Amino acid sequence: MAKPHSHLVLENYIGGTFVPCRSHIDSYDPSTGEVYCRVPDSGQEEVEAAVAAAKEAFPAWSQRSPEQRATVLNKLAELIQDNLEDLAQAESRDQGKTVTFARTVDIPRSAYNFRFFASSALHHLSECSQMDHMGCLNYTLRCPVGVAGLISPWNLPLYLLTWKIAPAIAAGNTVVAKPSEMTSVTAWMLCKLMEQAGVPPGVVNVVFGSGPRAGSALVSHPEVPLISFTGSTATARVITELSAPFCKKLSLELGGKNPALVFADADLDQCVETTVRSSFSNQGEICLCTSRIYVERSIYPEFLERFVAAARKWRTGDPSDGANNNGALISKEHLEKVRGFVALAKSEGGVVHCGEGVDELDLPERNAGGYFMAATVVTGVPDSSRVMQEEIFGPVTCVSPFDTEDEAVSRANGVRYGLGATVWSRDVGRVHRVARRVQAGLVWTNCWLVRDLNLPFGGMKHSGVGREGGRDSYHFFTEVKSVSIKH
């Protein structure tokens, strides 16, 4: 174990300055199980200071033209791109994901988030209505709201933090952001680029710490009129309760229990390859990962055989090894939770075909204490089981046969979540029918995770409230004002 003084020690970023904190939280390297970083354990005092800085910066920032704000966002994108390798290495070490995934997905998308919202901010038009019969002209304005509270999760740390910061500041708001205390390093690195990019002091403030302390202080602050949160449904309930007395605007992007419906006419080569990726990418730690696969009975045996064979080839190990598809899960506690679901499946008569408890992981010595789990495929679990009802958020997926289209749709909809779904069929009529009937905010057919940032993103039921995307994020981060002029 490294000596405490050799750990990386993060500081809050408030009013354009790094501010040390009196107490800290240990952050672990998931691939070794060792503490490597100390994160501020912020509370009321630090959040107060950050909100005050954001409030002070709001008038000047909100009065800048969209073009002026876009220049700053584009510069931030450039700086992220220039520091891509350092950020990718840090993201991998902090979160456990492979360096390859961070290098090709997380960090490029973080830069693109700023570019996209820099551009989209220039293309929003207001509406104008003639009301001649009343001798009036009516038009709408969209005004920034004020200080935005942004709370981002640990699975895609910089990717999802920038997905919130970019539209918030592009629309003219100032922000107080709280990243997950388990993955704070790349947010801290982003703060170092702020001044260089020309972000005025106080426009972006980052307060590190736990949900119960820093998160609660931010969510219940009377001067923070809107909260954007990505994370668990359980935490969203707490946020909703804390926000209610202040009538805050909420955008909640929550969990998923995403089904794949595989019909007999599916292109199995493409389906198996994509569904392995959709089930196990980023250690299964993506809210959009497939965790229930329903397969038409006539092709079920072939699909299962091919899917298990492909899952066995999905390599798990040292995140810095480019040959590996998956790295480590985020924490020891999370690994135990995911393993608990596999044990529960077995106790209920389920069969584990590969992965946990079946295939041994061959890990380098330095990773022996890390939180690794192989891609795991389970069958024979009833839909009523917690394994089929609750979000596992790990490299585990369950496969089950169905007989009719109605049955497939009914079982896909038989959970409290409704974030994403995939449909595999060559029948165009069926694709449209099923896409309409499945209760999910995003439905992919014969593909997965094809994303255009203009499109609305979000879930139904317990998977969230509101949508994010080009127009949707702009609408969330602004208030509409109707102006009537008598002539």
TrEMBL record:
Catalyzes the NAD-dependent oxidation of 2-aminomuconic semialdehyde of the kynurenine metabolic pathway in L-tryptophan degradation. The active site is at E253. PANTHER family: 2-AMINOMUCONIC SEMIALDEHYDE DEHYDROGENASE. Its EC number is 1.2.1.32. One of its GO terms (cellular component) is cytoplasm. The keyword Lyase does not apply. Residues 23-483 form the Aldehyde dehydrogenase domain. Belongs to the aldehyde dehydrogenase family. GO terms for molecular function: aminomuconate-semialdehyde dehydrogenase activity; retinal dehydrogenase (NAD+) activity. It comes from the Eukaryota. It is found in: Cytoplasm. InterPro entries: Ald_DH/histidinol_DH (IPR016161), Ald_DH_C (IPR016163), Ald_DH_CS_CYS (IPR016160), Ald_DH_CS_GLU (IPR029510), Ald_DH_N (IPR016162), Aldehyde_DH_dom (IPR015590). One of its GO terms (biological process) is retinoic acid metabolic process. SUPFAM superfamilies: ALDH-like. This is 2-aminomuconic semialdehyde dehydrogenase. Keywords: Cytoplasm, NAD, Oxidoreductase. It is an enzyme of class 1 (oxidoreductase). Pathway: Amino-acid degradation; L-kynurenine degradation. It holds the Pfam family Aldedh. The keyword Oxidoreductase applies. It catalyses: 2-aminomuconate 6-semialdehyde + NAD(+) + H2O = (2Z,4E)-2-aminomuconate + NADH + 2 H(+).
